[in-house]
Amino acid sequence: MAYPISSSSSGNNVNYTTNPTYAGTFIPAVWSAKLNAKFYAASVFGDISNTDWQGDISGMGDKVTINLAPTLTVSNYVAGTALSYQVPVPSTLDLLIDKGKYFAFNVNDVLEYQSKPNLIDMFSTDAAEQMRIAIDSTVVYNTFYGSDAANRGVTAGKNSASYNLGSDAVPITLTPALALQKILELSSVLDEQNVPDAGRWLVLDPYTRAMLMQSNLSQAQFMGDTTSMVRNGKIGSIDRFTVYVSNQLPKGAASAAAWISGDGSENAIASGASGVKRRAIIAGHKSAITFASQITKMETVRNPNDFGDFIRSLNVFGYKVVKPESLATLIVV
């Protein structure tokens, strides 16, 4: 409430009164220049995919044509016989930049004036982090099941067909002892596809990581190290895999084939997150998935209807499994 002020003068003394009479204690507001830090989900896709063709895009709707190396035939040589020349057949893949995500917000001049932190910078930073997480979850969800048929299922293994990596119908019931065994089987499945050792990665959910910490992996002597992994909290690498932990991996209800993305935005099923039990664990090589992303717009526009600024940004991206043989999937409960 506003209080009208009246005054009366007597000599050099001026008396001020309020109408109505103010009763209470005035508590001034103090605006802090410090910000309360916010926690964000970890993003792993930038580390596990390749971005070889990212520089070739400029906007949404672009198409990048990827040339694939042909497979040449090696023949036996017999002295005196004519050589047989193979004509390599060109092969290509198209990477479509057909996805886009944006953020848009309004910063009022009055709020900006009253706040010591720069609201535009604060909001922009948060929006950028949220966009990164949303893209990460979308891409992981839409590529995790793109592995070669020989690299998943109950008879995985291109040559042996002897590894059980679980399926939608019969997922693996994981235990601490079994967790390490299945990681080694993922590695063997990639070996049977001649996937290079350098550049391999493994993405686990937090619950599976906790299981690993209860296995022999937690013992320093098992890893040939002087410090227990339980004490330093570092997974590092396991059998040529660089290991990442992310809660953006797809999840699924125990009795349904549908999956839910890490942030719940993709293919949500009726039971929602409360019924989630199945988990997807993915392993692969950086050659398996290609990803291209570009922030094509970042604009500040004055609000025509108020005193303030409109801030908006558009990020276009595309992704594709280009080497299915370099990707493996484990389905567990």
What does this structure look like?
With 333 residues, the chain is α+β, with helices and mostly antiparallel strands. The chain has a single domain (37-61, 101-333), classed as phage-related protein like fold. It has six helices and 14 strands. The strands form four sheets. Strands 6, 7, 8, 9, 10, 11 and 14 form a seven-stranded mixed beta sheet that branches. α4 crosses α5. The termini are far apart.
Topology (SSEs and partners):
Layout: E1 5-10, E2 13-18, H1 45-48, E3 63-68, E4 91-96, E5 99-108, H2 109-114, H3 119-143, H4 176-191, E6 200-204, H5 206-213, H6 229-232, E7 237-238, E8 241-245, E9 251-253, E10 259-260, E11 276-285, E12 289-302, E13 308-321, E14 327-332
Parallel strand pairs: 6-8
Antiparallel strand pairs: 1-2, 3-4, 5-13, 6-11, 7-8, 9-10, 9-11, 11-14, 12-13
Short description:
The protein has 333 residues and is of the alpha+beta class. The chain contains 6 helices and 14 strands. The strands form 4 sheets. Strands 6, 7, 8, 9, 10, 11 and 14 form a 7-stranded mixed sheet that branches. Strands 5-13-12 form a 3-stranded antiparallel sheet.
Distance between the termini: 60 Å
By DSSP (H or I, 4+ residues per run), the number of helices equals 6
Q: Give the H and E element order.
A: EEHEEEHHHEHHEEEEEEEE
Record field, number of beta strands: 14
Average pLDDT rating = 79
Q: What portion of residues is helical?
A: 10-25%
Tell me the CATH topology: phage-related protein like fold
Count of structural domains: 1
Any idea what the CATH architecture is? Alpha-Beta Complex
What gross morphology would you assign? globular
Report the CATH C-level class: Alpha Beta
- Please describe the biggest sheet, giving its number of strands, its sense, and whether it closes into a barrel: 7 strands, mixed
* Percent of sequence in beta strands: 25-35%
Radius of gyration: 29 Å
Which regions have little confidence, pLDDT < 50, spanning 5+ residues? 1-10, 220-224, 228-234, 269-274
User: Structural class from helices and strands?
Assistant: alpha+beta
